[in-house]
């Protein structure tokens, strides 16, 4: 049963969401171990609760796709009622942890992400391929949760440049995933992105999204999120690397490599932000 629950939780995507919230917290200059632990665990559990609810909602679709047909719910390894109860416990636990960090805005933002993801984005996926634009804010707000938990003001531009980066990153990330698994999505009867576009138009659209992601990356040092000279140098390199490498992959319609590149880019970006904060670390 433990193995089934771990597979149901899909911990790797949830860990990336938790990491982005931790980066938002560190960007405030705070480094309380207790707060970082509660924040990371709270956001991780919130992301897990959302993905379990999503799997309950989409278990009929998952059963039609080879990529997901062996997940616990479509495979009958756990009942929807048991999965719902598990997600409810995790959801309440996550909100309690966020509350313990000490900010009602963090709890409200986390709850908003959960509700929007499961009540707006997930149902829209059955209706239109443009649902990705509705789901993107859910991936952009975790750094904001971390930021307010660290005492940061919502009126400071730095946190919104980081949120904008994650918002824009979500779009090509999701679209490349759909393009790579388009046969599975057809089997499930889901609307396909760019179904009315030619291959060339699809490539150009994705290349423009990459340029937008690279452009926002450059704004992080300009808004004060990157302070050290090594950090600025790293971000100066990240943007052209993403643009040049991604452009070449998309020119070959290599959707999978583009997807992997975007994931690696985000990990490097978050890692560089942590590295920059470590350089400015001052003991309490």
Notes on the structure:
With 284 residues, the protein is mainly α. The chain folds into two domains: 1-154, Tetracycline Repressor, domain 2 (Orthogonal Bundle); 156-284, Four Helix Bundle (Hemerythrin (Met), subunit A) (Up-down Bundle). 76% of the residues lie in helices and 0% in strands. It contains 13 helices and no strands. It has helices spanning 2-9, 11-26, 33-57, 59-62, 80-101, 104-124, 131-140, 142-149, 157-180, 182-188, 199-222, 229-251, 255-279. Helix 3 (33-57) runs parallel beside helix 6 (104-124), helix 8 packs antiparallel against helix 9 and helix 9 runs antiparallel to helix 13 (255-279). It is globular and about 50 Å long.
List the helices and strands and how they pair.
Layout: H1 2-9, H2 11-26, H3 33-57, H4 59-62, H5 80-101, H6 104-124, H7 131-140, H8 142-149, H9 157-180, H10 182-188, H11 199-222, H12 229-251, H13 255-279
Helix pairs in contact: 2-3, 2-8, 2-13, 3-5, 3-6, 5-6, 6-7, 6-8, 7-9, 8-9, 9-11, 9-13, 11-12, 12-13
Share of helix among residues? over 70%
What percent of residues are in strands? under 5%
**Number of discrete helical segments:** 13
CATH topology (fold) name of the largest domain = Tetracycline Repressor, domain 2
Distance between the termini: 43 Å
CATH architecture level-2 label of the largest domain: Orthogonal Bundle
Q: What is the CATH domain class of the largest domain?
A: Mainly Alpha
- By CATH, the superfamily of the largest domain comes out as UbiA prenyltransferase
**CA radius of gyration:** 19 Å
The secondary-structure class comes to: mainly alpha
